[in-house]
Specification:
single chain, alpha/beta, Rossmann fold, Dihydrodipicolinate Reductase, domain 2, six-stranded parallel β-sheet, about 35% helix
Length: about 375
């Protein structure tokens, strides 16, 4: 039986979630909600479902709802996530929240703890690794073909120049850490997906002269160095339209293992794999030529394809009754990205000091996985 779904927050992303539910056989979109009547009404007409202007009124009127997507916005693109997500959980609904899970890590901790207490599904739209290239790269890891992590490098953001800069933007972006909070959840999630938990990091944040002249408070250049629990290291560079990224495009992830290296280009488009020539007499020296990669192209260039993939995975996990702590891109996973974000803020505010992120809540396990 299809899961009955509703979307709260009918901006662009809310409409994307609604479309994904409409197009997935595991879901039935039954309602949309927005405090802005015009947005709710337009979405209701588009999708052929009732409009609501209060989440609680919607949940009282339609107790059959199984899942609520929270796609509200707010400061740093996440400050309005907490209350609607908590309301949905309090009504016994499973929740898929947009990233960042919250704009404040204290809210995120409370939200994850409440979902655990209620034993409900809480997922987050960390969609950047719900792709063909990421799936194939993960399989290489599982098959033991990559080896232990040596380093990884993730470059992701927006292309631009000082001439394309249009000013500080809307008030919700006029905070120092709005790019770090709103956007870096994605690269943090990708790096954790391939490398595991971060145990220490160091951050340097800044903004170019054009933003300084415009008195733009956003620290749009984020440079973060990480140490993973497995002993490997990683580097993340993200910027918001301050420069062109050059090699690798707007999104590139390179993962160097002790056995081979892989790189994902433009998130959905290509996977490159470099394997060493074991019979090379120069192996291990600076003179050894890097072998040509084996490249797989996926015939996909539209990044928006990640949304139905990720939302479909959430529907599959609930339909298959996956233990709530073990769903893909869980609330706990999203909390990890925000813990790293706030550790980066702490590092920056202390002159680039090394910071240990706060520990994640423990996994309690599920009896079906133990016996």
């Amino acid at each position: 039986m299809a899961l009955k779904t509703a979307v709260v927050g009918m901006g662009g992303i809310g409409n994307t979630h609604a479309t994904c539910y409409k197009n997935n056989d595991l879901a039935e979109l039954v309602a949309v909600c927005d405090i802005v009547k015009e947005k709710a009404d337009a979405a209701a007409e588009k999708f052929g479902v009732p409009a609501f202007y209060s989440e609680e009124e919607m949940l009282k009127a339609m107790p059959e709802i199984d899942i609520v997507s929270v796609t509200t916005s707010g400061y740093d693109n996440g400050s309005m996530h907490f209350e609607p997500a908590m309301i949905a959980l309090d009504y016994g609904k499973n929740v898929l929240v947009e990233k960042p899970i919250c704009a404040d890590v204290r809210d995120a901790r409370e939200l994850v703890a409440f979902a655990n207490k209620k034993k409900l599904y809480l997922g987050c739209d960390l969609n950047h690794y719900f792709t063909g290239p990421a799936a194939d790269a993960k399989q290489l890891q599982k098959d033991g073909k990559v080896g232990e992590l040596v380093y990884c490098i993730h470059k992701v953001g927006f292309n631009g120049t000082q001439d394309s800069y249009k000013g500080p933007g809307s008030p919700r972006w006029q905070t120092p850490y709005s790019h770090l909070k709103a956007f870096c959840a994605h690269p943090f999630s990708v790096m954790r997906y391939f490398c595991g938990d971060v145990v220490a990091l160091q951050a340097f944040l800044d903004k170019p002269g054009v933003r300084q002249t415009a008195e733009d408070p956003m620290l749009s250049i984020n440079s973060i160095h990480m140490k993973f629990a497995n002993g490997g290291t990683g580097y993340l560079i993200s910027q918001r339209g301050d420069a062109m990224f050059g090699y690798g495009g707007w999104w590139s992830y390179e993962h160097c293992g002790a056995k081979s290296t892989f790189a994902i280009e433009n998130c959905v488009e290509k996977l490159h794999v470099w394997e060493p020539k074991n019979n090379d007499p120069e192996r291990g020296t600076m003179n050894q030529a890097t072998p040509a990669p084996v490249t797989k192209e996926y015939g996909v260039s539209d990044f928006s394809s990640t949304f139905p993939n990720r939302i479909g995975a959430f529907l599959e996990d609930i339909t298959n009754k996956v233990p709530y702590e073990h769903i893909r891109a869980s609330g706990r996973d999203a909390l990890a990205t925000l813990e790293y974000t706030f550790a980066a803020i702490k590092s920056y505010e202390n002159g680039g000091a090394l910071v240990v992120p706060e520990a994640l809540p423990p996994m309690h396990g599920d009896i079906s996985l133990v016996y």
